[in-house]
Amino acid sequence: MLEVQQLAVNYRGVCGLDSVSFQVSPGQLVGIIGPNGAGKSTLLKALLGLVPASGGVVHYCTCPLHQQLERVAYIPQRSQIDWDYPITVWNVVMMARTRQSGWFRTPGRAAKEIVKAALERVEIPNLCDRRIGELSGGQQQRVFLARALAQQADLFLFDEPFTGVDKKTEAIMLEVFEELRSQGKILLLSTHEWGQSLNQLDRLLLLNQCLIADGSPQQVMTPENLRQAYGAPLGNPLHQDLETSFFC
Prior knowledge:
Oligomer: single chain
Order of helices and strands: EEEHEEEHHHHEHEEEHHH
Helix content: 25-40%
Protein name: ATP-binding cassette domain-containing protein
Strand order of the largest sheet: 6-7-8-3-9-10
GO molecular function, one term: ATP binding
Pfam family, one: ABC_tran
InterPro entries: AAA+_ATPase, ABC_transporter-like_ATP-bd, ABC_transporter-like_CS, Metal_Ion_Import_ABC, P-loop_NTPase
Strand content: 15-25%
Domain ABC transporter: 2-234
Number of strands: 10
């Protein structure tokens, strides 16, 4: 189980997260939603120690998560990746196996088979010799999904995975998420996506610095919760648009 207790982040006196607490059991797919600047990406980074927490603890299987990062696969937002870096698709995915094989050792047969299987699962084995900067947005996202699969992690963190991808890539990603969930993995993903796709998630965390609501999509996406998160009073056109995009 992933246990987050009173997690807080401050940037030079500005609150990024305020005492956020939740638990996630194996086999759950949890979405993190909220307005821009709500702390969604900050939450994922704070879980991993990529931004310093000013308070709180993060445990996985009763031990501090930062002591077992080899069990975590993290896919950042596409805007945070240097797509001009001269590296091939194959080598990006193979990076997931370096912890096991070592940085200066030639990958063995087992590692190559794992990478090959991951590329095949996301339907891009034909792109293994291409540089990542030559790919479309959807193809690039599939490369990093393949890398996460090749890592064979237990906890998967995805930051805005659906941004800038095509419908086929989105469908592949949702299929993979379901497979990982059925294997007892824990998946956390931040998203701006609304509509019926949210119903495919087990839970939602509605965030705006603090945790406003935690529960099933139907429990979380209520008019009052949306008003608290997005600051739009009841009857405001913005609020109506948010409701319509989910409930219609």
